[in-house]
Amino acid sequence: MSNNQLLQKIQHSFIGKDTDYPTLDGNIGPRRYLDSAASTLMMGPAFEVAREFLSHYASTHSKLHYAAKGASEAYDWAHQSVLKFVGADDSYNCYFTGSGATAGFNRISTELANQRPDRNIVLVSEMEHHSNDLPHRAHSEVVHIPAMGEGAAYGGIDIEVVRSLIDQHGENINYIAVTGASNVTGALTPIHEIAQLAHSVGAYILVDASQMIAHAPVSMINATFDDSDIDALVFSGHKIYAPGSPGAVIAKSSLLESTSPCELGGGMVTDVYLEKYMMSEVLPDREEAGTPNIVGAITLGAVLEVLMRIGMDAIREKEIPLIDMLWKELSAIEEVNLYGPAPDDVPRTGTMTFNIKGFDHGLTAAALNDYHNIQVRNGCFCAHPYVREMLKRELWDMDIDPNALNAEADIERKRGMARASLGLYTTEDDLLALVEAIKDLIARKDEIHSSYVPEGSNGYRHRDYAPDKSAIFDPLVALEKALQG
Ligand SMILES: Cc1ncc(COP(=O)(O)O)c(C=O)c1O
Question: Rounded to two decimals, what is the model's pTM?
């Protein structure tokens, strides 16, 4: 099967892509899932691998029966798949973390801070998700790297700005933490150029690949710039078609060997006495205390294997025209504000944030769902400083203090955006449907405003319409069905 044939087959394999939901007009039909930056749908063949594994399930901590041997080998294979996927050579190792990328950032920030307490500064970009900002603040002095541009177009990293911060803080910098791609605007970061600058003062680079991993080729090693290897990289498996899988940390083995693991327990020690214990020297065991999420890791390994067969370059090439088309179509609508740098100025992944003038972001997301069966995210996407910066001007226009902490619900409802994000299963038709839906909401502005009431800090609900409960997943209903089936 050619790469292209495999890609087409996989695009139709995603579980839940066409699940039916009701709409306000009384119809029921397949949803359009445009919320992949939050979590992607499950790739069918990877789910099948997990299901097959479950018929052989055993703990990797048991050693001698056949099922345990199979599980241990498969779990090891999952680590190897991750390393291969990110182009890591023998100098790297990889460990899985319990709960997504967030756990990885908490772990690695503690380890790096403990390793070099004399270097107390961490440079963190202003575009970061809180997961790649707050853990560093807990241990170090964080200096934020401003992005390029201003107002709604704010985004993307200017390498000269990084250079000047490096000149300023020099060898006090322990590491630089940057996102590979923003979860708000999809703006891609020149990670290897930043790595080279970091290394010039002996600092490390830590990359958040959560939003990049499913959309663009990622390589720990780069031949173009000298001394530009990535020291550590973190991502979540649920953002790359393996919901229920762990987070992954890939790091230079030398770095992990010289730090003390921050999670202790079974599986990462060689011996324990009442008064002392000896940690394993073996990676990744020493970083993986407790019984791991074996099923999730194997699912992730299977996804990565499929994506390697298709080729991440081919996937990126397929996404670029969709991004360009969506940007062009939305830019042409006068009542739409688009955020982040234009794709021609800074390359982006398929994540598009927007507001419809006169609509709060929650109203847009609710109405897209209720009227058009289009599922998008809204809010500040756990990247408050970045979103606040892009919205500053709009909020000033509205006479709302954009820096107000403890914001009132009214401010929360204004401070944010709607976000449409793409996955491998997203078609041009899905995006054109979004564009038409936005035009429809604009045309129905008065009707929509009078039909919805605010709910919670950033939501809206229709006054009269509520979907039949049976349309929405209920674990007990699913259980009854399974018990009867
Ligand atoms: C860029 C980025 N980093 C980190 C995270 C945190 O990932 P998780 O919630 O899986 O820990 C997210 C999740 O939205 C993200 O988009």
Answer: 0.96
